[in-house]
Design a protein that fits this description.
GO terms for molecular function: fatty acyl-CoA hydrolase activity. It is built from 3 helices and 5 strands, in the order αβαββββα. With 146 residues, the chain is of the alpha+beta class.
Length: 146
């Protein structure tokens, strides 16, 4: 079993994200802020493109990230594996594993997302949205520092 297969469940979906040369920092690897942007882009592609959530209002309540290896610039795109690790009444958690082109997991992360109404108050997750999240359901990301 590779580290990658131990990190993300079979229900996870992969989103390829292009790393730009400008994402690197002075140390020659992708900067920590750029890593968060990769996760944000993967999340938006999942929610908007794959799940079709164009009308659902959500906001990020919490973000946790653990860096496991340096991610370097490459002409081959890394994959961001993403799955739903918790679904509550008005919030859910997405978990991520960033995998470099060689298959090494360079970071894992989790985002707590809250569904909100037109007054920016927490709102119940609609049944259709919940059903789509359930298809991506898996265990919480295995953070090492916990």
């Amino acid at each position: 079993m590779t580290e990658s297969s131990a990190v993300y469940p079979p229900q996870a979906t992969a989103v390829s994200i292009q790393v730009r040369f400008g994402d690197m920092d002075a140390y020659g690897h992708v900067n920590n802020v750029s890593t968060l942007r990769l996760i944000e882009e993967a999340r938006c592609r999942l929610l908007l493109d794959q799940l079709g959530w164009t009308d659902l209002r959500v906001l990020v309540a919490r973000q946790e990230i653990e860096y496991r290896a340096m991610l370097h610039y490459s002409t081959a795109d890394p994959k961001v594996w993403i799955w739903a690790s918790r679904v509550g009444g008005s919030s859910f958690e997405l978990s991520y594993a960033i995998e470099n082109p060689d298959g090494q997991v360079t970071a894992v992360a989790a985002t707590t997302i809250v569904v909100i109404d037109e007054n920016s108050r927490p709102a119940p997750i609609p049944d259709e949205a919940r059903a789509k999240l359930d298809k991506l359901s898996g265990p919480p990301v295995p953070f090492r520092g916990r």
